[in-house]
Each structure stands twice: as C-alpha cells, then as structure tokens.
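Support reply, case 0932

Customer input (verbatim):
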Amino acid sequence: MTFGQLGWVDGLGFALALILEIPTGVLGDLFGKKRTILLSLIFSTIGVGLIAFSNSFAMLFAGSLISNLGFALFSGTGDAFLYDSLIDMKKEGDYGRVVAKSRNIVIWTYATTAFLGSYLYFYWDRLPQILWGLGYFLGLAIVPFLVEPKVDTLKFSLKNYFQQAVVGFKLLFHSKLINYALFALFISGAYYMYSWGFIRPAMANSFGFYVRQQGWIFPSLAILSTVFVKFLPQIRNKISDLKGLSLLLLLMSLGFMSAFFRLGNFGLITLSVIAITGNLADPWISAVVNKEIDSKYRATTLSTLALLSKIPYVLLAIIAGNAIQNGSFGKFNLSYGGFLLLMVIVGIVVDLEVKRSSNKLPITG
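Our regenerated output:
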C-alpha cells in the first residue's frame, strides 16, 4: 500500500473504534468488566490474526476493523477494572502507584517486542503479527482467573445503556473535570495519533532513522519513559495535576513543531520529548479521572475520553498519508504542533474563567 491508502485503512479502522468507544465502555459498567475484557481479547486475536495472514486488501481491512473493535472493548474498561478491584480490596489510595507500575510493565513489554520485531520481520515479515495475535490469545487463558469487582454493579438494560452513555459525556465536562478536559483530550489525542498509526515511523524516517535504527530507538525511548513514569506519584506531589497536564501538552506541541525541521540525529530529541510526554500523560490523566468520578461511571467516562482522543487521528490519518506521499510531512507536523500550542492557551483561559466564576459570591439582601 501507499501511505495514502494506508491512511484510508487506518482512518476507517479507527473511526469504527471511535464509534464504539462509549457503547463498549457502557458494556463494561453494565454487562460486566470481566466479560467485556474477554470479548476484547477474542476480537483482538481474530483481527490481528486476519492481518497476519492477509493476502488481499479486503482481508487486511477486515482485520483492521475487527482488531479495532477489540481495542475499543478494552479501552476504559481495563482501568476501571483495576480501580474498582482496588476499592474491593480497600486499597484505592494505592491507585496512582499501581497504575504507574502497570504503565511501566506495558512500556517494557512494548520495548521488548519492538526490538525483537524489527529482527523477526527480516526473518519472516508475517512473524511479528503472528506473535502479536498469539499474545492476545494467551491473554484469554488469564481471564478465568479475574474476579469481577463488586463495586456499584448495575443491572443491564437498554434504558441504563443509553443513560450511561449520556452521563459519560456530561461527567467528562463536569465542573470537577472541565479544568483538565482540554489538556487531557489533546495530549491523549496527539500521542494516540503519533503512536498507534504510521506517524511515528514516518517521523523517524524523516530524520533518517529506518527499520533497523527504529528497532533500537523506539524500545530505548520506551525504557527511558519508564524512569519518568516510575516517579509519577512523586511528580504529582510536587506539581498540581492542572499545571502538570498543561506542561505536558506544551511539550507535546513543541515536539511536533520541531519535526518540521531536518534535524538528522538531533531528531532523537524530538522523538524523546513526544515519547516521554505521551507515556507520562496516560497514567496521569487516568489518575485524575478516577479521583473525580464515581466508580459506577468510571469506565464510561474513561471510554468517552478515549473516544474523543481518537478523533484527531481519524480526521488526520488520510491527510497525513497524503502529506507523506507529497513530501509535505514537515508542514503537517508544524501545523499540528501549532494547533496544540493554541490549545494550551485556550486551556489556560478556560481554567482562569472557571476559577473566576467559582470565586464569585452571590449578592444577598
């Protein structure tokens, strides 16, 4: 496929995941988080399996749609399962520490597989995808040992289903979260676009880093990120969540804007800034949402956030693919980075307005 065709496949696949984000989050809250995780692994295994053995554009496209359905089923539900399980154990105060450690496990897993995958690809180009699908399949063996959290279990009904979906949107932009919403959405959206599609390897290519080099660079940056994620609880004790998220969005914007230039080996700095920022943002945002939202709506709210954060990639995947083909990828990065910088300013203005409104006292007789 050309990058233009890849943009269409990615864009449509992620569009399906976007459409399903809130319904799958609602299923996690109402149908059961354990069952939702089981369905996620089943669809992910089938979808990635189709990608691994595809011999046609149609089969590849079908695999993309099915695997994205699996990813959507897990999104939001996984974090909510973790937090509600800690509540059952009366250890919810440990959530920040546990989610940081969990994120580090994810990063180390990615680092290992990305490094091995770059070599396995040259041995047999389908082997990395086959092992990827096998990973989801092995996850199915773990699901029976999971214990469904007992916190705020609701009986499933269509009425509750749609009520929960509406509540997810309302809670995300509730007064308790509105200060964080813009920063959280655009940090998550930017890193999702960068890490889940072809933007990351394309950016590395623009700096002169190709398959072999990427097999070392991306795992190394992931490992470097674990150092920062490990100290996230301490970082949050030193700086407020609002200031922290605004700083992360600023760094993300500068990272994309710098990708406009032909930096050569100095492009490692750009890739490092984006990787560390994105890996820090995920557990930080999750901790903020879980702190402010009741457990029975937690998966729905997290899925709503995940849905909205996918919008940039769905809208921009085709544009990015064409930009790469036309040799204007640098301008694309500069424009997107400038937009993120504008959102930093907008977020600060919104926060100041919220604080100003909350400080107003009612006039009494």
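We compared this against your earlier run and they match. Two observations from our side: The chain has a mean pLDDT of 82. The CA atoms of residues 359 and 365 lie 19 Å apart. Please reopen the case if you see a mismatch on your end.
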